[in-house]
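Table S2 (text version). Query chain:
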Amino acid sequence: MLASRIMIVEDEGIIAMDIRRQLEGFGYEVVATAFSGGQAITLANEHKPDLVMMDIVLKGEMDGISAAHAIAESLHIPVIFLTAYSDPATLLRAKATGAYGYLIKPFRPDELHASIEVALYKYQLERKLKESEQWFGKTLHCISDAVIATDAEGVIRFMNPVAETITEHSLEQAKGKRVSELMTLIAESSRSVIENPVLSTLQNRTVTGIDCPTLFVSQSGVEIPVDDGAAPILDDDGTLLGAVMVFRDITARRQMEHLLRESEERFHSSFELAAIGMALIALDGSFLQVNNALCEIFGYTRDELLGSNLQILTHADHHDKVINLYLRQLVTDVLPTFQIEVECLHKMVGKTIWTMISASLVRTAGGEPQYFIVQIQNISNRKYAEQQLIYLANHDPLTGLLNRDQFHNRLTQALSTGQRHNRKLAVMYLDLDRFKLINDTLGHRLGDLLLQAVSDRLRASVRSNDILARLGGDEFIVLLSDINQIDDVARIAQKTLDILTQPFTLEGNDLVVTASIGISIHPDDGKDSHSLLMNADTAMYLAKDRGKNNFQFYTLEMTEKSIERMKVERGLRHALAHDELRLHYQPQVCTGSGVVVSAEALVRWQHPEWGLVYPDRFITVAEETGLIVPIGAWVLREACLQAKTWIENDGPFGGVAVNVSARQFLDTNLFQTVKRTLAETGLNPSALELEITESAIMQDPENTLQVLHQFQGLGVRLSIDDFGTGYSSLTYLRRFPIQSVKIDRSFVIDLPGDDGSKTLVRAITALAHELNLSVVVEGVETKGQLSFLTEQKCDSLQGYMFSRPVSAEQFQQNFINSGFKTYLPNTSNDQP
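Corresponding structure-token output:
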């Protein structure tokens, strides 16, 4: 069978290509693609397609409806409209063209395929019916029925031309002969000769017909199927005058019946084998015919559906208000077709199915409604996917809690309600403590499991009218509604902390986590969602600063600190871009010789309004925002350049010490940054000492060991800064490739009067020397401290006893230009 030939009319090239691809995928032949109404008419005349897919809105003076009307008028080619418009005016215009389909964009491939098949089938039926009518019309007009009239004895008196043709006798030849001599009739099934109905009519004076399929055998032996009958010709007084026989050649009718049977078989095959549910439905809603797919969708047998009504598949209210409304619009010609999504009922009680229902109306030749052709497709999977997308848009995919956006919406609604009813609300901002350490040591998978377990506990602990959400990472937030007393919020916060501190057992690991909670109250701490969230976040950071595993209420003072923090952050970014950072250097003095052997580089910020800003004001902000990484890179480069200059131009200078913060040490690019800086500045690696805090190196000792070995291979000196303030393992301390430790000034400040401080310094110094590490002490400010530390044989000292941190120019003038002579102690009390 040849593929149906289709022409596409679509002014959007990409859409036309997509439709062409789909049609060719279905096995159709696309003969042409037109992009305007005029071009469509020209190409239709040229290619004579079987079907035209017509977009309504086209560029140019002629739209798709006008073009379709012209093509239908002149070529009688069926048209299916493709459009995004379904307004009544457009539908009425489209209907006037006699369109065979109306697809609303966007449509699915199966809808496109089904519409084309139905349109082609409908057109074929109409064409065959029209041909049949034309054939019969011409037959009746030109040939008419064969008529033979006899006298009372059965002798032929009259024959019309049709009878002459069939009997192969002219009237002159037939006249005077008995009808039985002229006509031989045989039963088609038994092939036996049957009596001519004229003889029975003459004998019984009644109308006589033939009640079995009959063949007329002509004079030449041709067998012609006929349908005949005879009636008596009576005078007014009832006298029998003769009989008239009317018969017709039913060969054409037999052929038409055969074609109709074939057509019905094709329709039945397409109907039954369709992948989507199909049904013929009477005007009263009862099922006339259903296919297997429809039965499978709803779980009914064919007999169950055929004995019921369309209403069995839908909610009664929905059927009356929606489906019946659309069906009535088909009957009243308001719509040529419709397509709607409907939630239907499965035979299994309680089970529902989302369906796409499309329907059109079949009318008689006189325009009277006959029945509906309905297509029903199961779209439950698509609906489920849509619901999942909506869920994912509003929920955190890991924990199933509300996400940030949805929480903002709920909070805004709750604030509106609270303001109308003068009710207090509370926002609890919760952040897990040291969660990053769990992720880094046990892996992200276990971290995700922990977040899910925390979510479950939080979900079980909140009240039914509270709202819980995950903002991202390890941050959660709870909206407490209908708060009567602030103490109630405190009790809920403490209960939450207690619940979380109970161990979590995950894949054989017993984990204990704590949380820091910040709380803001509406309307005291903010009247909108943004203010409440920001202030709760600020309070949470206060809880972090106060040792973690506690909750804090927001105060006005926090806002001032938050504003200060934002100013510092903005200022730091400006400082990096506009060269406002400065380096000061503090000498490190050898206890044995009193000679300055090296210097520590310390960053300062020369603010255009604030003046010289010390690190205690901005380093914490730099750490929290990550700005410490570019600041640290700048310090490293400037210090290396200065040290290189002093070594090359000003004589013996041991080197420069640069601090590496915890955030910098965790940066995976730190090693490459140091290596590149040394290469670009030309400083000998041995002249650079990196001071890393004890707490930073102990966060992940095994990783620290690998990083330190990299620096050791590079030739850089390594020192543990603030030694004694952390919790170093002696095992790791022995394995770390470091050259020195630096005793924190907190152990020095009470020397030599405090026995505890003296004991700690003695122990640290002895331990370091046993491990062949040099000891540097910072914060030396008095002669008493100097004397004690010298007695303990600490290797190098640093502090105001010798010099405050000074600019590179001042450092050079005070120490380098003097040839690194022995430095006489000085009791200056300047600020560090």
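Notes on Table S2: The first strand starts at residue 5 and ends at 9. Residues 824-832 have pLDDT under 50 and may be disordered.
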